[in-house]
Amino acid sequence: MILLRAIALSLSLFLASASVVAQDNSTSLALKFSCSSSVGEGDERVIYADTGEFVLQAGQISSFRWESSLHRRTHGFDCSVDESDGLQLDVLEQGWRVRVVDAASARERRGYDRERGRLCTVRLLREGEYLHVLPSCATLCGSRSNFSELRIHLRSKDCEYLQ
Predict the structure, then answer these.
(1) Tens of pLDDT along 91-122?
(2) Which residues, other chains included, contact 119 with Cβ-Cβ below 8 Å and sequence gap of 6+?
(3) Which of 7, 15, 59, 98 has a 20 to 30 A CA-CA distance from 91?
(4) How much is the pTM?
(5) Above 50 in pLDDT, residue 31?
(6) Residues 6+ apart with CB under 8 A from 69
(7) CA angle centred on 150, ends 145 and 153, rounded to 5°
(8) Residue 141 gets which letter from DSSP?
């Protein structure tokens, strides 16, 4: 009887520690990526290029930087965000939402002269072995309408542009 209780207690402790590990794994992310794609738009080639690093641990941002560019034959458009922009992290059921607390001030620091909204969020959603990166952040773009929407394979780092 004592042996059965000891086994049951050991089993419940093991299951409790396994669920904590799974929970920590689902709330953390460490991803470096570099993506590019060349597509035809009418009679012109357009190059999308994105590079970044997202490191999120235990509901905190350890590192967050993302540069998203769109290049045409004669000019390019850039968007960028990083920790110096004053970020806040929300943990969601399927991932995270990163929000720039004062996006208008971050835009002013970049020297942009036109109003492009006052909100900036980036949702990072886990979809199996992929991370779906959903930006809503025209504020931190020069003349471009938004960052690129991406789907990144978490192991191979292969990217798919969704816009």
Answers:
(1) 999 999 999 999 888 888 887 766 777 889 99
(2) 100, 103, 136, 137, 139
(3) 15
(4) 0.79
(5) yes
(6) 47, 48, 49, 50, 76, 77, 78, 79
(7) 170
(8) B
